[in-house]
Amino acid sequence: MRFGTLDFTPAADSPALLAASTAAAIGAMQAADASGVLVAAIDPGLADTAAFCEHYEIAMGDGANCVIVQARRGERTWFAACLVRGADRHDVNGAVRRHLGARKLSFAPMEAAVERSAMEYGGITPIGLPADWPILVDESVAAHERLIVGSGIRGSKLLVTGALLAGLPNAEVLPIAQPAA
C-alpha cells in the first residue's frame, strides 16, 4: 500500500524493520489486527516528525507522536505513553497529569524512555511498550483512519488505524491534545 511517497508492506513479514518488542507485540495480535499493521523503511535521519512529513509528503495530522511521560506521586514513580497527532501538542500538565493521578508529571528523560521502552529515541511506538504502562490515546488519533507511528526503530515507520491504537492493551481514549500554536 502506498501512503505519501512510501510503499508499506505487512509488518509481520518484516521483523528486521521493527524493534524486538514491537515485532513480538504484532506477533501476539489476532491475525486480523496484525495484518493491518504495515511497515516501510525510511531514512533514519528523517525519523523526526517534521522532517519525515516534509520529505515523504505526509501531512502532520496523518501521524501520531508517541511521547513517554514520567509521573510521580509521593514515593511512587511510573511511566505512561501519550499519543497525539503530529499537528497537535500534548496537554501534559493538565489532562494527562489529572488522568494519571500524578502530583508531578514531566516528559521522561530520553535515556529513561529509551532504556525502559527498549526502543530507539525518535522511533518509540505504543505497540510493544511494557505491559504495565498506560497508553493514553487522544480522541482524534482513535478516530483517524490511517496514521503513521514509530516502529520502535528510527529506520522505519508503521501505518495503522486509530482503532488499532485505541484497542491496544492498556489503551485509554481521552482528550489529551491541544492544537499547536
Automatic annotation (TrEMBL):
This is Prolyl-tRNA editing enzyme YbaK/EbsC (Cys-tRNA(Pro) deacylase). Residues 44-165 form the YbaK/aminoacyl-tRNA synthetase-associated domain. GO terms for molecular function: aminoacyl-tRNA deacylase activity. InterPro entries: YbaK/aa-tRNA-synt-asso_dom_sf, YbaK/aa-tRNA-synth-assoc-dom. It holds the Pfam family tRNA_edit. It comes from Agromyces hippuratus.
